[in-house]
TrEMBL record:
InterPro entries assigned: CBS_dom, CBS_dom_sf, CBSX3_CBS_dom, Diverse_CBS-Domain
Superkingdom to which the source organism belongs: Bacteria
Start and end residues of each CBS domain: 9-68, 78-134
Presence of the UniProt keyword Membrane in the record: no
Name of the protein this chain belongs to: CBS domain-containing protein
Gene3D superfamilies assigned to the protein according to its UniProt record, in alphabetical order: CBS-domain
Transmembrane segments: none
UniProt-listed PANTHER family: CBS DOMAIN-CONTAINING PROTEIN, CBS DOMAIN-CONTAINING PROTEIN CBSX3, MITOCHONDRIAL
Pfam families associated with the record: CBS
Keywords in alphabetical order: CBS domain
Length: 158
């Protein structure tokens, strides 16, 4: 069964925290910490995806450019070639992109290329877990129906 990205967006919402290319790295680090998020899309003047700043981007900047960190901007450290998804794209396809590109966040774009959401690996894992738990409950219910169980349920089973 294929599940579209839209399913995740319907559950978590489409509000996305974004930054501009000229925003400072220290301001972005504070934003990520305050909002308890792992990445923010960087939007250009037309509102299009210019890149993505993640916790990893900031750590790499600290490791390689610590002496100038207070002068760096999103444009200096952002990942520019960001994998994206559409609302109708299957989450398995998105998870594959994340794995192939070592990215934990994928911006979701509409047909005109505008940002309409952000999907994280955590969102996909949560959905897959819910899906597995639901399937397990359905199978248990089916097996425990009269005449389907090969062994009677234990009297203390819940």
């Amino acid at each position: 069964m294929t599940i579209p990205v839209l399913h995740i967006l319907n559950s978590k919402g489409t509000s996305v925290v974004t930054v501009r290319p000229q925003d400072s790295v220290t301001a972005i680090a504070n934003l990520l910490t305050h909002r308890r998020i792992g990445a923010v899309p960087v939007l250009d003047e037309q509102g299009r995806i210019a890149g993505l700043v993640s916790e990893r981007s900031i750590v790499e900047a600290m490791a390689h450019r610590a002496d100038t960190i207070d002068r760096l901007t999103a444009a200096d450290i952002m990942t520019r070639d960001v994998p994206t998804a559409t609302r109708s794209e299957d989450i398995v396809s998105v998870a594959r992109k994340m794995t192939d590109r070592h990215s934990r966040h994928v911006p979701v774009l509409d047909d005109a290329g505008r940002l309409v959401g952000l999907v994280s690996i955590g969102d996909i894992v949560k959905l897959r877990l819910e899906e597995a738990e639901s399937l397990a409950r359905e199978m248990q219910s089916y097996v425990m129906q009269e005449g389907h169980a090969s062994v009677a349920p234990h009297p203390f089973a819940s």
